[in-house]
Amino acid sequence: MKKALVISGGGCKGAFAGGFAQYLIEEAGQHYELFMGTSTGSLLVSHLAANEINAIKYAFTHVTQESIFSNSPFIMKRKGKIAKIKINHFNVIKNFFRGRKTFGESKNLRKLLANSISPEIFNQIKSSNKEVVVCVSNFTLNEIEYKALSDCTYENFLDWIWISCNYLPFMSLVIKNRHEYADGGFGCIIAIEEAIQRGATEIDAIMLNTEVQQLNRMRSRNAFDLVFSTLDFMGDQIVNDNIKVGHLMAKEKGVKLRVFYTPKVLTTNSLVFNRDEMEKWWQEGWEHAQQSLL
User: Fold this and answer.
1) Rounded to the nearest 5 degrees, what angle is found at the Cα of 209, between the Cα atoms of 219 and 14?
2) Which of 276, 294, 238 lies closest to 12, judged by CA?
3) C-alpha span between 217 and 225 (Å, rounded)
4) Which residues lie across from 258 on neighbouring strands?
5) Which of 152, 164, 200, 261 could be stapled to 184 by a disulfide with Cβ–Cβ 3.0 to 4.6 Å?
6) Can you tell me the distance from the alpha carbon of 217 to that of 214, in angstroms, rounded to the nearest whole number?
7) Do 281 and 13 form a contact (C-beta atoms < 8 A)?
């Protein structure tokens, strides 16, 4: 028997997955040997595997835009409980003048990873019977790649986690091993199929979307809105394909698969990191897990 926890991409919505996973591990007593994450999921899985849940909860519920972006392409203005997001045209133009290929840069996230995932956590997992795997997109080879902690050095694995989170064109495009890499969600938002390929016989998958689309998208107001809408549309199609293939393969291989969704739309812009909202989502994830497992 090999049990896997798989967490999808979803930006700031990862806080919900953290709360949900905390309940599964600490309250429901689930023991996983394989932890797989894409994008924001990759930020969670190392700490979950090492049972350092309070540390990752603190990191997720204290993160800010400045923690992620070294050059943010967004301006966030809040009126009461309503947040309005605009493109920071000055920062975007500044990035292009620097010769960058993206609207923003996320080098601060790489520094945050070094501060939050210690060599001790890395070595603890490496010496255990647990495996942690993150998903990245290789744009040069046009392939999805899965990077296992057991195959990596400490610095390399932090690079792969960072790369898995870099949602283009708003975050950094990373050159590694002479290849261009970005967010794993461009090819695989939730790696159920790969978990089965790696021998999982039971899988709990946390999908950071609602099971049924609950909102129609607003009409695009400008070119940047259109980019968001296009990426969201493509992401939804990838999610549908990942889930369908995962269910079919699970049925074929006799794998017990549980897919958990968010009960509501958490946000329409997953690249805006608001501490108060993420603290609330962590608690909501915990509570939803409790209700889902009754």
Assistant:
1) 110
2) 276
3) 10
4) 204
5) 164
6) 10
7) yes
